[in-house]
Amino acid sequence: MLDDSQLLTALRQCDPTAFAQLFEMYSDKIYRLAIGLLEDENEAEGVVQDTFMRLLERLNQFEGRSTLGTWLYRVAYNLSIDRLRKWQPTFALADDHDDESLPMPAVLTDWREAPETWLTANELTAELDKAITGLPTKLKAVFILREIEGLTTEECAQVLAISESAAKVRLHRARLLLRERLAEYVTELL
User: What's the mean pLDDT when you consider all of the chain?
Assistant: First the structure.
């Protein structure tokens, strides 16, 4: 398995094995990001395909200021947002200075007792998936990248083209909203 610099060199030499390795490493991850944002399997598959096509078209423009993986995530994120804008023309994501207007939780519940004692794993997973789907796009994107894909806060900030502190704020708000939504579900069970 090639490291990033070897992989980049091999890709620039049009080595199909290098492309296959990169596709194997990132196609599922890019799909998870796209499906999380778009909630449509066909559109998510299209984002994966378009991301790797963009890689082939613009590989010589890659400057190496980030990892190949971070660059691919950024391309996939942008393609996903472009598709969302086509669906919702009034959907505004360009203004990254409006984090103050993102929702804050209204209800916080004391979770000292683990909710797993009340729920089966399948019910909790289904409710968590539903709660993640309901997050605003800005919060959902950072949550998927950080918590599901395991990127660092710095990498998330690079992918989303925001500062690290904005990424931290969005992640914190996403967690609070998820906690609130799951708390509502647990409260209903009690």
Answer: 85
Report the percentage of the chain scoring pLDDT > 90.
57
Please say if the pLDDT value at position 37 is more than 90.
yes
State whether 72 and 103 are in the same domain: no
Q: Number of structural domains, the chain?
A: 2
pLDDT tens readout for residues 60-72: 888 888 889 999 9
pLDDT, residue 187, reads 76
Q: Which residues contact 189 (CB under 8 A, 6 or more apart)?
A: 118, 119
Token pair recorded at residue 161: 């083209």
Residue of 11, 42, 39 whose CA lies nearest to 25: 11
Residues 78 and 106 in one domain: no
Q: Extract the tokens encoding 179.
A: 């906690």
Which two tokens mark 138?
């800005």
Residue 49 has pLDDT above 70, yes or no: yes
Quickly count helices (H) and strands (E) in the chain: 8, 0
Cβ contact 18:59 at 8 Å: no
Q: Which residue range(s) make up the domain with 151?
A: 99-189
Helix, strand, coil distribution of the chain in percent, nearest 5:
75, 0, 25
On whether residue 150 sits in a domain, the answer given is yes
Half-sphere exposure of 88 (CA within 13 A, CB side): 9
